[in-house]
Write the structure tokens for this entry.
Amino acid sequence: MNAFGDLLDRRWGETQAALGLPPHAVTLTWDIGPFPHFKSKRGHGVTFHRGGASCHLRFAKKLLAAPTHRADGLIRHELGHVVDFVCDKDRLNEWAATKGIQLPPTAERRAD
């Protein structure tokens, strides 16, 4: 679980840096635990918005046995939801435009 946590911390740091977020602007917690969606084949992670700039990520235990590239993709996806919850949409669209990207209209597609 240490390698998973290290990867998540690294990706979160990269996300904050890319968006210019100060290190403590967003409260992010995470754990590994149960969730009904995790019983499905595609259920590996969920993001809970706790209001304001606070989110909690929960990952399925089965993700700990996944290849690193798979865990990395799922971490990045859930962090995409965090960004979607806590960032001003106009600012996020302006940031994406500087990268030559037009963000999709739905939360699931934006997280991808």
Summary: Residues 68-86 form the longest helix (19 residues). The chain has four helices and three strands.
